[in-house]
Amino acid sequence: MIETFFPNVEMSKFWEKTYETVYMTGISLVFIFIFGILLGLLLFLTSKGNIWQNRVINWIIAAVVNIFRAIPFVILIILLIPFTRGIMGTMIGPNAALPALIIGSAPFYARMVEIGLREVNKGVIEAAQAMGARTSTIIFKVLLPESMPAIISGLTVTAIALVGYTAIAGIIGAGGLGNYAHQYGFVRGNNDVTLFGTIAILIIVFIIQFIGDLITKKIDKR
Amino acid sequence: MISLNNVTKQFKAKSGTITAVDNVSLNIKEGEIFGIIGYSGAGKSTLVRMLNGLEKPSQGSVTVAGKEISKIKGSNLRKARQEIGMIFQHFNLLWSRTVRGNISFPLEIAGVPKAQRKKRVDELIKLVGLEGREDAYPSQLSGGQKQRVGIARALANNPKVLLCDEATSALDPETTDSILDLLLDINKKMGLTIILITHEMHVIRKIAHRVAVMENGKVVEIAPVMEIFKNPKADITKRFIQQVTDEEDTMDTVQHLLDKYSTGKVVKLTFIGETAEQPIISELIKELPITVNILQGKISQTQTGSYGTLLIQLDGDEKHIEKAIEQLETQQVGVEVIGND
Ligand SMILES: Nc1ncnc2c1ncn2[C@@H]1O[C@H](COP(=O)(O)OP(=O)(O)O)[C@@H](O)[C@H]1O
Ligand SMILES: [Mg+2]
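Above: the input record for the complex with magnesium ion. Below: its predicted structure, written as tokens.
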């Protein structure tokens, strides 16, 4: 069936490119999760009325986050070329896309984590303090578990945006399904390949959304 | 057990400085149930929050169980807090943890090993009567059950003091009663000192031994609960007492009663403390040839005795009625002739 509707699709190439997309999304998501939570926690804890309230630090982190969130992803890739060369040693292939993907999405995710943390009931934090909890206990046993649905649903949104970013990165030479649809489809005039790549990207997005919703629903006991 | 010396707490706000607690000195004994009553904004919450260091006093000192809470910091303060339980109006449970998980939390904070934790949690679940609900999440519990979890959690580390900030204000009257009974039970069984904040006089009447009345950050009156009922001094105290004595309702019907029982004398007796349990009326009938009709009455139990009023009609010979009133006046009851002479 694939051969009749998509005559120019070569399956081994397609799977290789699909794997690259999943790889880029997955690896960068792990780093985004870590950096996003760290930054989100810092943004939250240094804000007014919270444990590490500090206007200067809060302002600096917020400024950095906002700047990186505002730079269009395509431009961020270009700006980061020297940096990427420096740590990855190359500008082509899936690994070359990772720095831009992580730096481009972590601030976005950090904001979502911060919003989630702000929704944690202040009374519960106070109850933990009244029990004699140290700050680390409050972070790991109150703030993060109580905001987990927001943290997971934010990660789902970020992961979906990330699939889109990998496609853009692919066009510039990073591999993945975006690269497949562009280089093997568009450039060679094979519209069926472009369409096939697009469908694959959509399926990946739907799977991410489905898993994300499922986990969010399962952990939310409110 | 607890002492506050000239404690003042000020907050800086945009509109200027707010004095939430104004030069308060208090001493609370071990095993006492101490009530603090006042309207919203009186400074009650700020006052109890200074007892576990959630707020630092601007001036004065706060000592709880031998530790000067207003001075200590860091790990010393955290250790001290483990010996002071607190429960809240809105329960403040972790929605992400089950009943068991919530009660276990303070034990985790105190570094109790897992096996011991489990044992202690089981004990506490039994104590507050939540058997069978161990694995429920807070969202699956009623308000009263949530507060029971709150109480179990507050008691987990065997505190010496329990702070209750409007702990029954979000509950319906029946649930309030059952929670207050539980607190009384705990107070008696474990000799726990309880500080109880409320804006409802019936809560004070039901369980407190002593009460402080707060207004604008100041303690305007402080006395044993019976004393306050017998002899309220500040206007605000009188208003709080009216909450529970329905004085106005009673007076509405008095005229009606006077019209109905137009012979003899109608007398209002005010019982305070032990006198309510004495057979005053029956002795009166036994000793004098008069009839006594009980028209209306309400007696409430408090922790240190009973309190209430009784409206009676004394009928018979003029001379004997005079004698009866004299006899009543020798008892420890308030006597007030309110009609028909
Ligand atoms: N953190 C705070 N910052 C500024 N003002 C406060 C703060 N906490 C309490 N207040 C003020 O202190 C006063 C007493 O508040 P509170 O102790 O909560 O009263 P209560 O518990 O009796 O209702 C109120 O006027 C309140 O607005
Ligand atoms: Mg209050």
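Notes for the reader.
DSSP finds twelve helices and 14 strands in chain B.
The longest helix of chain B spans residues 173-190.
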